[in-house]
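To whoever is on call:

I kicked off a structure prediction for a single chain this morning and the downstream step that reads the tokens threw a length-mismatch warning. I double-checked the sequence; it's 361 residues and nothing unusual in it as far as I can see. Pasting both halves so you can look.
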Amino acid sequence: MHTSISAPLPGSALRAAPPFVWERLSDLPDPVGLKGAYAGMSNGWVLLAGGSNFPVPRAAGGTKAFADRIYVRSVEVADAPWREVSERLSFGFAEGAAVTVGDGVIAIGGQTAKGPVADVFLLRMDRGGTKVERLPLPSLPAPCANAAAVFLNGHVYVAGGEQDAQGMAHFWRLNVAAALANPSGVSWETLPTWPGPRRFGAMMAVLAQVGREQVFLFGGRREAARPITIDEYLADAYRYDPQTNTWTPVAAMPHPALIAATVRIDAARVAIMGGSDGHDLDKMAELGDRYRIPDHIAIYDATTDTWAVEGTMSIGVVGAAVVELGDATWLVAGGEYSPSLRTAHAFRLSLRVRKDGEAAR
């Protein structure tokens, strides 16, 4: 059974032809699937580390497990198999943020079986594709899970996060080159926060507006503590200008979204795919494993400050790993499709080409 949000979409959200093509790839090596893995690119390899799942379903009394394994796959081979490397994380991590920076992937915060952590480190594959090294970076000012992060002009920006079952209102920045050169002598800078509620599980993207790249923040949720209400799910959105160090509200999403897959389509557009929207909260226990995460795709255009609802995912999930592969293609792997239920499915996502040879807009 598939359930969906019943409220009408705002007038600015127009429906258009699906802009994406989904191609099934080899499943993740963990047959249970993984949510909240750290993923990115390093020297021609996709790296996917950590993640969480329930080896025994929660409905049967199982508890959440946190993975410490690292999987890799070549970008050059169309459907390269996943391979587990011998190196592992220091312990099981999941549900943090990850950004690709130069030749490595920065893993930011997250949680373990003991709760949220402030750990930050870079994973890098050697050019021979034989070994993954782990380099320490300055810890976050506070432990947090489910933060959002982007990389812009040599800096990593981190927004929000979850601690003690509440969203956070922090906005931090790190100079990556300085931090790699001197991990113990560099710290995160605290910046002004957005003019809206604290949150976790938000989405971020770097988009061009008013002639320069800026940081955009979308949605998330205020609280993680139960009982959860629909009002905790957020659809608001904001733009941060690093030049002026200021925030500006932008058009709200056509629906709330939490931990959705985020794909930057081009310089000015981003796709927010799936993510929890709080629908049918009162029926969640009754529906059980029939409850489904939404599969809708909303595309934001920073040039016009408008949204359009365009197509659907192959499977609606929260906490999927998303990696830009180049040439307008992305990897979307894993995630949670129903509360506590993971998927091992992996897909190559590409822009649909119109008959005139141009990519869909």
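Update from on-call: the warning came from a stale cache, not from the record. Cleared it. Sanity check on the structure: Residues 2 and 279 are 11 Å apart (CA to CA).
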